[in-house]
Design a protein that fits this description.
By secondary structure, the protein is of the alpha+beta class. The chain is 49% helix and 13% strand. It has three domains: 3-74, no CATH class; 102-149, no CATH class; 164-233, no CATH class. The chain has nine helices and seven strands; from the N terminus they run βββββββααααααααα. β3 and β4 (25-27) form a beta hairpin. The longest helix is centred in the C-terminal third of the chain and has 24 residues, at 164-187. The chain is extended and about 70 Å long. It starts with a strand and ends in a 5-residue tail after the last helix.
Length: 238
């Protein structure tokens, strides 16, 4: 992606420098406020909806990029039915929704969604759902509880070790480290040329903690997995 210089048309708070950190945080950088009339260099990837209205291009290349960004922001919202999504996209949408319900403690709603699509629930989730249910208890929950407690216990679905948001955060951090390693090698040929290995190693260190270790190989698998999901990577493939 390229960088272009723009003229500021409206007051714009900004953080200069720094890098993305774990869990969508930002590490380092210097807060700065750009006033109208000043100029700044912006990476194409940073042209978000709250930034575009404050910029005016200073050359033809920047003008073309800015017009594309404005067109994307102003494009009418389209509605896509879940049934029309790619099977993998549906699976990730279901997983992300389930994760959100679990994080918010809405176990009854989570269990009813699982039963409606034919998935099994753990006994722990069933117990929590029954405690959250008001009278009358939903028929689907009552019938399933009766069925599951009269038969030998079966294991519930495996829970993913990472959430979708964590995968995206790891991918964003990896991309930052990859760009940084490439720039470093271009500026000094003595810097490592295996930039992908450098980025994977730095990302693994950043996301390893006392509770969970992450390897360079795992980082590479996560990045490849996100790249293979066009609804996350921005790839127009279906």
């Amino acid at each position: 992606m390229a960088r272009h210089r723009y003229r500021i048309t409206h007051r714009l708070p900004w953080i200069k420098g720094g890098r993305p950190g774990p869990h969508f945080t930002w590490i380092g950088g210097t807060p700065i406020v750009y006033e109208p009339g000043m100029t700044m260099v912006v990476d194409d990837r940073e042209l978000a909806g709250n930034v575009v209205p404050c910029l005016e291009a200073t050359d033809d290349a920047g003008r073309a990029v800015l017009e594309r960004a404005r067109a994307a922001i102003e494009a009418p919202v389209t509605r896509t039915l879940v049934a029309d999504l790619h099977p993998n996209a549906r699976a990730w949408l279901i997983r992300a929704t389930d994760e959100r319900l679990r994080q918010e403690g809405r176990i009854l709603e989570l269990v009813l969604r699982m039963l409606a699509r034919g998935d099994h629930s753990t006994r722990e989730d069933l117990t929590a759902a029954a405690l959250q249910a008001d009278e009358p208890v939903p028929t689907a929950l009552k019938d399933y509880v009766f069925e599951v407690f009269k038969r030998p216990q079966r294991p519930g679905p495996k829970r993913p070790r990472r959430t979708t948001l964590e995968d995206l955060a790891i991918t964003a951090y990896y991309q930052y480290e990859l760009d940084h390693a490439r720039l470093a090698h271009e500026a000094d040929s003595r810097q490592p040329s295996n930039v992908k290995d450098v980025a994977a190693r730095a990302t693994a260190r950043a996301f390893t903690n006392d509770k969970r270790a992450i390897s360079e190989r795992t980082v590479e698998r996560i990045v490849a997995s996100v790249d293979a999901r066009p609804w996350l990577s921005g790839d127009p493939r279906t």
